[in-house]
From TrEMBL:
<dbReference type="InterPro" id="IPR050406">
    <property type="entry name" value="FGGY_Carb_Kinase"/>
</dbReference>
<keyword id="KW-0418">Kinase</keyword>
<keyword id="KW-0808">Transferase</keyword>
<dbReference type="InterPro" id="IPR043129">
    <property type="entry name" value="ATPase_NBD"/>
</dbReference>
<dbReference type="Pfam" id="PF02782">
    <property type="entry name" value="FGGY_C"/>
</dbReference>
<dbReference type="GO" id="GO:0016301">
    <property type="term" value="F:kinase activity"/>
</dbReference>
<feature type="domain" description="Carbohydrate kinase FGGY N-terminal">
    <location>
        <begin position="24"/>
        <end position="250"/>
    </location>
</feature>
<keyword id="KW-0859">Xylose metabolism</keyword>
<dbReference type="InterPro" id="IPR018484">
    <property type="entry name" value="FGGY_N"/>
</dbReference>
<protein>
    <submittedName>
        <fullName>Sugar (Pentulose or hexulose) kinase</fullName>
    </submittedName>
</protein>
<keyword id="KW-0119">Carbohydrate metabolism</keyword>
<dbReference type="GO" id="GO:0042732">
    <property type="term" value="P:D-xylose metabolic process"/>
</dbReference>
<comment type="similarity">
    <text>Belongs to the FGGY kinase family.</text>
</comment>
<dbReference type="InterPro" id="IPR018485">
    <property type="entry name" value="FGGY_C"/>
</dbReference>
<dbReference type="Pfam" id="PF00370">
    <property type="entry name" value="FGGY_N"/>
</dbReference>
<feature type="domain" description="Carbohydrate kinase FGGY C-terminal">
    <location>
        <begin position="286"/>
        <end position="483"/>
    </location>
</feature>
Length: 543
């Protein structure tokens, strides 16, 4: 056993687990709920995951709260099993805990804490009228998926539940509330509910007043000022409650996990992605690729104009960030990998989907720079940046295109990044500078492929760190560790602490834009943009 220097740094993994010198992060993503346990040096000790999927019910994308609870317990059980297998001990406590989840959406509760309507996720694009009016009246871009857009759309539509709304939150805020009893939200996640004033680190007071005036003029108005309905805002490092007995039982129904664990403020997947890639300082940015895909660029100054396709949110410390968010990411690419896996099995090949997915990505490297004349639209849902309320996934080609596996694979990867590239052009036109763009998410686990294509799409060097595959679950575990450090006397701001404490020796691989890929992607985007008329026609014709 290594000697203990008082910080836990010199404890071996097993001893750190037994002593509770660990941090646990849980992130609820679109298709997986992942739990990640890290040691005192922020290295991953164990992981666990639970697969889930959203449902399209009554034309609303949703997850049930029962599915949330089941998924939390499933991910923790898988983590505890991994701990026992690796170290031969039960997981009974941790030194800190953090929750992250998909941002935005609509979870309204009444005074008895009953959910008033099924969870409306970020994926819903039915809030166009509300988002447009709020953007105009507040002078601030309010995207379709923001919580306040969902709330105001319900007001405009005169939904019966609106007068009963006593509090609302995000998915991360809901889970944190169930674990601790505290209605609090990290500033990054809160900035996707309602605009944040950078000077105060809290909701913008003038905009709150403007919203209340709008709501008061509408039928079926709210029964309380908006500020009273929103969670308390907290920055990174703040204490945000402790795990209650009921919360411990929710995570671990077996009863092995003890209560009392301190929690950091719950954060959105955008904020934890920034932490996971060490992109929280000005002129840094990151790209997170999953069911959705988004880029976050930390700003040196405010944007000169309001751009409907650009969110302005914050880092977990409250610094302003320009966010290019695309509803559609790698799901369609994953669906094609599933089809090819079925084909492989049909001809007797012993291949799992991960191997097929890696082979498909590898084939993309051999594709023609412009994709050989093929187009791939990954629109399973609507897309604000390209003006679509709904989407129809499709592959399009001309009779003269070259349909090969390599070109097909390349255009599917291009399809993941195309809408993001269009949105990033807006930031470039604003003169936003980026020194480093870091990528994370499962798409980047296959070395060199998605990273190279992303570099071509945004014409910027793209780095991938060794922690990229862990993603936001690791990132929120790090935030939990930072909260513990602040409680112990740490005074460095988050950006400096990450630089000096977490990423000082991190290994990264950087892909420079290949001029041939950049030119090919530009040609692809020109045809892709022209072909958006096909998407509009398809959504009108096929219901």
């Amino acid at each position: 056993m290594k000697p203990n220097d008082g910080t836990g740094e010199n404890l071996g993994p097993r001893d750190a687990v037994v002593a509770g010198r660990t941090s646990l992060g849980v992130e609820l993503g679109s298709t997986n709920i992942k739990a990640c346990l890290i040691g005192p040096d922020q290295t991953t000790l164990a992981v666990g995951a639970h697969t889930w999927e959203n449902q399209f019910v009554d034309r609303v994308w949703t997850y049930s709260l029962d599915a949330v609870h089941e998924g939390l317990a499933g991910a923790f059980a898988a983590l505890a099993a991994d701990v026992r297998e690796r170290y031969g001990v039960p997981l009974t406590t941790v030194g800190g805990l953090g929750v992250s989840a998909m941002m935005h959406g609509y979870l309204p509760f009444d005074a008895e804490d009953r959910l008033l309507v099924p969870f409306r996720t970020w994926r819903n694009t039915s809030t166009g009228a509300a988002a447009a009016e709020l953007t105009r009246e507040l002078g601030f871009s309010i995207p379709l998926r923001w919580s306040v857009a969902h709330l105001y759309q319900a007001v405009l539509d005169g939904e019966a539940h609106v007068p009963q709304v006593a509090h609302l939150t995000t998915l991360a805020g809901y889970v944190h509330w169930r674990l601790t009893g505290e209605r609090v939200l990290g500033v990054g996640d809160a900035s996707g509910m309602f605009p944040i004033d950078p000077a105060t680190g809290d909701y913008d007071a003038a905009m709150l007043a403007a919203f209340d005036a709008l709501a008061a003029r509408a039928d079926g108005a709210l029964g309380a000022p908006l500020r009273d309905l929103l969670p308390t805002v907290a920055p990174a490092g703040a204490a945000a409650g402790r795990l209650t007995g009921a919360g411990a039982a929710l995570l671990d129904p077996t009863g092995a996990l003890t209560a009392g664990v301190p929690l950091c403020p719950p954060e959105g997947d955008a904020g934890t992605g920034m932490v996971a890639t060490n992109a929280v300082a000005p002129r840094t940015g990151n790209v997170s690729a999953g069911t959705s895909i988004f880029a976050m660029v930390v700003l040196e100054r405010a944007l000169a104009q309001v751009h409907p396709e650009i969110d302005v949110v914050t880092t977990p410390s409250g610094d302003p960030v320009a966010m290019v968010h695309c509803n559609n990411g790698s799901s369609e690419l994953g669906a094609w990998a599933g089809v090819l896996t079925q084909f492989a099995r049909a001809i007797g090949a012993d291949a799992d989907q991960d191997a097929v997915f890696a082979a498909l990505l590898g084939a993309a490297l051999d594709g023609e720079p412009d994709g050989g004349g093929l187009l791939a639209y990954n629109y399973l849902s609507g897309e604000t940046i390209t003006g679509l309320d709904e989407g129809r996934p499709m592959v399009v080609r001309t009779p003269g295109s070259r349909l090969t596996l390599a070109n097909f694979a390349r255009t599917q990867v291009y399809g993941v990044f195309a809408t993001l590239a269009l949105g990033m052009r807006t930031l470039a036109a604003e003169g936003v500078a980026i020194d480093a763009l870091l990528a994370h998410g499962g798409l980047f686990r296959t070395a060199g492929v998605a990273q190279r294509m992303l570099a071509a799409a945004v014409d910027t060097p793209v780095a991938v760190a060794s922690t990229a595959g862990e993603g936001g679950a690791w990132g929120v575990a790090v935030l939990a560790a930072y909260t513990a450090a602040v409680a112990g006397g740490e005074t460095r701001p988050l950006a400096a602490w990450l630089d000096e404490r977490v990423f000082a020796h991190a290994q990264t691989v950087v892909a420079e834009p290949d001029p041939r890929d950049v030119a090919g992607m530009a040609a692809y985007l020109e045809t892709y943009t022209a072909g958006l008329a096909i998407q509009h026609a398809a959504t009108a014709a096929i219901h």
